[in-house]
Amino acid sequence: MRDAAPQTIFLKDYTPFGFQVQDVHLTFDLAPNATHVTARIRFAPIKGAADKTFFLHGENVTLISAKIDGEVVTPKVTPEGLTCDVPDMPFTWETEVKIDPAANTALEGLYLSNSMYCTQCEAEGFRKITYYPDRPDVMSTFTVRINGPHGTLLSNGNPVASGDGWAEWHDPWPKPAYLFALVAGELIAHRDTFTTSEGRKVDLALYVRGGDEGKCAFGMQALKDSMKWDEDVYGRAYDLDVFNIVAVDDFNMGAMENKGLNIFNASAVLASPETSTDMNFERIEAIIAHEYFHNWTGNRITCRDWFQLCLKEGLTVFRDSQFTADMRSEPVKRISDVIDLRGRQFPEDQGPLAHPVRPESFQEINNFYTATIYEKGAEVIRMLKTLVGDAAYSKALDLYFDRHDGQACTIEDWLAVFQDATGRDLTQFKRWYSQAGTPRVAVSEAFENGTYTLSFEQDTPPSATTADPQPQVIPVAVGLLAVDGSEALPTQILELTEARQSFTFPGLAAKPVPSILRGFSAPVVLDHAADHAFLLAHDTDPFNRWEAANKLARASLLGTITKGSAPDPAWLAGIAQLLNDDTLDPAYRSLMLDLPGQSELAAQLHRDGHTPDPDAIWNAVHGLIQALSDTMADTLPALYAANQVSDAYAPDAAQSGMRALGSTVLNLLTRQDGGDQAQAQYGNADNMTLQLGALANLIRVGRGDAALAQFEAHWKDDRLVMDKWFGLQVGTAKPDDAADTAKALTGHAAFNWKNPNRFRATLGALAGHHAGFHAKDGSGYTLLADWLIKLDPVNPQTTARMCSAFQTWRRYDAIRQSMISKELDRIAATPDLSRDTTEMITRIREA
Ligand SMILES: [Zn+2]
After folding, report:
1. Which residues, chain by chain, have CB under 5 Å from ion ligand 1?
2. Is 365 helix (H, G, I), strand (E, B) or coil?
3. Looking at residue 457, what is its pLDDT?
4. Close Cβ partners of 77 (under 8 Å, ≥ 6 residues apart)
5. Which residues of the chain have pLDDT under 50?
C-alpha cells in the first residue's frame, strides 16, 4: 500500500480528539514478517467534545480482530485508519493486528536493522504499529509486554518483570505515542549509575552490538554530564529508575528521545579515539545532551500538534547549545552555530522551502524537521532570553515547568509564560514564529557635536508563505570602540521594533567605531560598511572579531569573483597575525580560517545581481587559501609543531582545539611542501582526527591513492569509519571529478544504499560539494536525481530531505536552471512517488 493522495493539513483546523485514553496495554509477539500486536486501550468519551468521531490512525497494518468490552466489532477500515461506532461511556478497546517489520525499509514504525527490532515513531510512525489516535495531544500511560527469543527486550519506563523469552515494562508518565519505543535483539550493555539531586538512583545502560563495547564510555559520560547539567542549570531531575540508550545502524535521524529509551543512530553515540574525530565526539556529546534534555522539554511537556514542533525542538536545541558552551567554549560554540545557521537555515529561509518557525500548513510533517524549526527556533529563544534577561528567563522557565508539566502545549502557552513572568507584551515578538524569511538590517552612522547616531532599517523579503512581512523585534547588541581600540561603550542591547529606527549616544569625544550585532544577537543579515580590519584587530567581542575576519574574506572573495581582484592584503595580514597569536584559544584561531561557504557566496552574488559561477567561486576560495599559505610560508612549520598534542588522546576542548588549529595549519602547509608533512602525519597518527585530516590533504595534492587503499583495508569492517572513507573522497574531489567519484563509489561493494548513513555519506557529500554538484555538464544533478528516484520507494523520508539540494536552483544560469528543472520534472513524474518527495519537489519547482 502506497501513500494516499497528498492532502494539506492546516494549523487553523486543529480539533481535540473526542476521547480520553486512560491507559494502554500492548503485547508484541515478535516475528520478522508477521509480528502480532495486541492492544488493550481504555477510552472515555470527553463530555461536550466538538468532534465525537472515533477515528484511530493505522497504516500498513492488517487488522485481525477488534472488540469493544469483549464483544467483536467490525470497524470501517481505510488505508489511513479506522472508524467505529463506540459507546457513549468509558469502554475497553481491543485489537490484534499483524505487521511486517522485515519489509519496513522506510524505517518508520517497527523495523529490523541487522536482525535487531527497533522503532521510530516520531512523527507519525506509531500508526504503522497498531491502530491508535496517533497525535501528540493524546497522552497516556503504557504497559508493554514483549514476547521474543531475544537476549535484550526493552521498552519505555521501568522494567516490571521478565523471564525466558519475555519482558514487561511500565511507563508511569503519560506520553504521546510518538515517544513509544521497543527494542529487541542480541545486545551488550555498557552500564553505569547516576544518583539524581532528588536521591533517585538511576541505572544507566548503553546497548550496542557485539564488537562495539569499546565505543561506549564517552557517550555514557556525556549522559551523566547532561543529567547533572540539567539539574544545575534548569533544576530538572530525571524521573525513572532506568535510562537506556540503544545504538542502531539504520536510522533516518540522529537520535530519538523516546521516554526512558533513547534510540540513537550509531554514528551519533559510538565513539573511540581510533575511529572517531574530535568533531564526532563533540557532536555525540551534544546529541546525547539534546535527547536527554527532551525528557523535560518535549516529553514531560510535549506539543499539542506538529505545527508546534519548535516548542520542543527550538528550546531543546537552545538548551544543548548552552550545555556545549558550558562544557567547552562559549565563543567557539557560538561561532560554530552561526556557521551552521548560515550554511543550512539561511538558504532555506531565502528560497522556495521558506516557512515560519511555526508553519501554518503541511502535507507531510516529516518534511518539517528543518533547520528553520530547529536552529532558527533556537535563535528565537536565544533572542527572548536576551530581551528579558537571564533572571527573568529562569523565572519564566520555572513557571513553564510548573504550569504545563504533563500537558501538550502551544507557542501561545510558551509566550504566555514569559508575559506572565515578566509583564512584557510579546505580541510583536510572536512574528518570529509566524513570519518566514531572514530579516535584513541596514545600518548607517552619523557623528555631530559629540553625539553619535546609529540608524537601522529592517526589511524582510517576502517568501512563499509570508507575502507581506511586518517589522520584527530585533535585539541588536552594540558596543562602541574608541579609535585607539579601547572600549568607549560596553555592549548594550538596542531593541529594533520599527522599520526605521535611530539610537543616539551623546558625550563622545570622537567618532567611535561601532561593533554591531555582537554575539550574533539576532538571526539577520547585517548590511553595514564597517571597518572590518580595525574590528579584526581590536574588537573585544570574540564573535564580532571572528565576524570581521569573515566579512573581510567574503569581500575579498567577491572581489576576485566579480572583478578578478587579488586577495585582500588586510585579511592576509590580519589572519596571519591572529593565527600566530598564542594568547588566543587554538580552537578560536582555527575558526578564523573558516571561510564563507561556497553556497553562501553564491547566495550573496545572486542578491547583488550577479549570476553565480560555481567554478569561479571554487577557484577564488582556493586562490585565497593559497595566498594565505604563501603569506605565512615561513611561520607554518613552527605553528604546526606548536599545535601537536603530546599527551594521551582526550576529546576535550583543549586538545581538540590544538588539533583543529594543527589541522588548519596542515592544510596551508601542504600547499608549500606538496604533502610531505601530511604523509608523515598519516603514518604516525594514533587517532582518527589526525589520520583523516592527513588523508584529506594527501588526496588534494594527488598523493592519496596508497593511503586510501590502506585506509580501506584497515577499516573495511567498521561501518562508521567507512562512511568517512566514502564521504571524504567525494568531498575532496576536484569539481569536474566529484560526480564521477560519487558515481564510482555507488558501484563499490560496500555501498549499501539502503543504509541512510552510507547514502548520505556518498550522495549527501556530492550535494554538499558546491562546485561539484553544480558541475556544468549537469552530471551532479543527474546522478543525485537517479539515486533519489531509486531510494524513494524504499525510504521516502531520507529521499525527501535530500531533495533540498535543489532548493537554490533559481540562483544559477539559464543552462543550469534548465538542467535542474529537467531533473525535478523527472523525479516528479516517477510513478507512485511518495507523499514526502512529492511535497518537496512541488515546493521547490514552484520557486
Ligand atoms: Zn530534538
Report:
1. 313, 316
2. helix
3. 98
4. 58, 63
5. 1-4
Q: Determine the distance from the C-alpha atom of residue 500 to the mean position of all C-alpha atoms in its chain, rounded to a whole number.
A: 34
Structure confidence at residue 846 (pLDDT): 87
- Residue 429 has φ and ψ, to the nearest 5°, of -60, -30
- 403-433: per-residue pLDDT in tens? 999 999 999 999 999 999 999 999 999 999 9
d(CA 151, CA 54): 38
Q: Catalytic annotation on 291?
A: yes
pLDDT of the residue at 847: 72
CB atoms within 10 A of CB 191: 11
At residue 5, the pLDDT reads 59
Cα angle, residue 336 at apex, residues 345 and 553 outer, rounded to 5°? 85
The edge-to-edge listing of strands for the beta sheet with 500-505 is 500-505, 451-459, 440-448, 525-527
CA pair distance 197, 231, nearest whole angstrom: 7
Three-class HEC string of 122-185: CCCCHHHCCCECCCCCCCEEEEEEEECCCCEEEECCEEEEEECCEEEEEEEEEECHHHCCEEEE
Residue found by looking up cell 555525540 in the block: 284
**What's the 310 CA to ligand 1 centre distance in angstroms?**
9
Q: What are the CA-CA distances from residue 810 to residues 607, 768, 844 (Å)?
A: 12, 17, 10
Q: How far is the CA of 294 from the centre of ligand 1 (A)?
A: 7
Look at residue 2 in the predicted model and tell me its pLDDT.
41
pLDDT given at position 92? 98
- Comparing CA positions, the residue from 453, 579, 449, 455 lying closest to residue 510 is 449
Instruction: State the distance from the centre of ligand 1 to the C-alpha of 419, rounded, in angstroms.
Output: 25
Averaged pLDDT of the chain: 97
CA of 326 relative to ligand 1 center, distance in Å:
19
pLDDT value of residue 3: 47
Q: If you search the block for the grid coordinates 538571526, which residue do you land on?
A: 523
Q: Is the pTM of this model over 0.85?
A: yes
* 316 CA distance to ligand 1 middle (Å): 6
- State whether residue 46 is helix, strand or coil: coil
Distance from Cα 255 to the centre of ligand 1, integer Å: 8
The pLDDT assigned to 464 comes to 86
Q: Which three cell numbers stand for residue 239?
A: 524521573
Closest CA to 482 of 518, 534, 523: 534
H or E stretch covering 292: helix 278-293
Distance 653 CA to ligand 1 centre (A): 24
Angle at alpha carbon of residue 144, lines to 27 and 199, rounded to 5°:
170
In contact, 84 and 75? CB cutoff 8 Å: yes
Q: What is the pLDDT of residue 1?
A: 37
Catalytic residue among 291, 348, 364, 823: 291
**CA dihedral angle for residue 748, residue 753, residue 754, residue 758, rounded to 10 degrees:** 90
